[in-house]
Amino acid sequence: MQKVAVITGASAGLGAEFARQLQGLGYALLVVARREERLAAIEGERWVADLSIEAEVERLALHLESRGDVMMLINNAGFGTQGYLAEAAIAGQMAMHRLHVLATVRLTRAVLPQMIERKAGTIVNVSSVAGFARSANNVSYCATKAWTNAFSEGLWLELQGTGVTVQALCPGFTYTEFHDVMGSDRAKHPKWMWLNAGFVVEESLANLGKLYVVPGWKYKVFLALWTKLPAWLRLRVEARR
User: Fold this and answer.
1) pTM for the complete prediction?
2) What is the Cα–Cα distance from 142 to 13, expressed in whole angstroms?
3) Catalytic residue at 175?
């Protein structure tokens, strides 16, 4: 059986990089994105869907359940917003929660039984260092990525001894379209904080089987220190950003 990798949000950024590198490793691809014209550049099975819409998530999930040959699922689709919750458009906030949380649960559930039966498989949930922090201007993104981390931890516990692994990939600032789409000025953050998408994916694939992957030694050091702070002090620091 050929190894099949399913990649959501595959039309750009980390998703497109996962597609490139996994294809080089001999995987057959099922790539998922909203933009059909962007998927056309990727060799493999193409699936056009907006995974912030429940019916489209369910359609993809049923397809994955029926085929039974998925060896890897990359839950990568996502986006960010800026603005205070009381002022932000509610449609975008709700779409983010559906995409980051509900789609991840449903697609993971679609492939887990076949992986467990086969005693082999990998789930990669693309999270963020933002999952370990809070932001008054980015409430939903930080919250959904914190959920991604908690979901991955719980799943890791359930999968012990099954041969199936789960990873929470937690990059920091990465050169992709992500910040351009959300209208964030990259110049506000120093160049040393930015990672290359190829490097992030290489780190993920080199560490399959490890629960948390944080690319880049600077972010590893940051999180090692940041997560040791008591909540009152962490929140005080975050309130000043």
Assistant:
1) 0.91
2) 19
3) no
CA pair distance 127, 2, nearest whole angstrom:
28
CA dist 3 and 71 (Å) reads: 6
Q: From the candidates 84, 141, 175, 219, give the one annotated as an active-site residue.
A: 141
Is residue 34 within 8 Å of residue 99, measured between CB atoms?
Answer: no
Domains in the chain: how many in total? 1
Range of the domain at 27: 4-239
CATH number of 167's domain: 3.40.50.720
Classified as helix, coil or strand, 152 is helix
Check residue 151 and give left, alpha or beta (phi > 0: left; psi -120 to 50: alpha). Answer: alpha
pLDDT tens digit at each of 241 positions of the chain: 689 999 999 999 999 999 999 999 999 999 999 999 989 889 999 999 999 999 999 999 999 999 989 999 999 999 998 899 999 999 999 999 999 999 999 999 999 999 999 999 999 999 999 999 998 889 999 999 999 999 999 999 999 999 999 999 999 888 565 544 545 555 555 576 779 999 999 999 999 999 999 999 999 999 999 999 999 898 988 887 6
Looking at the chain, how many residues does it have?
A: 241
N-to-C CA span, the chain: 51
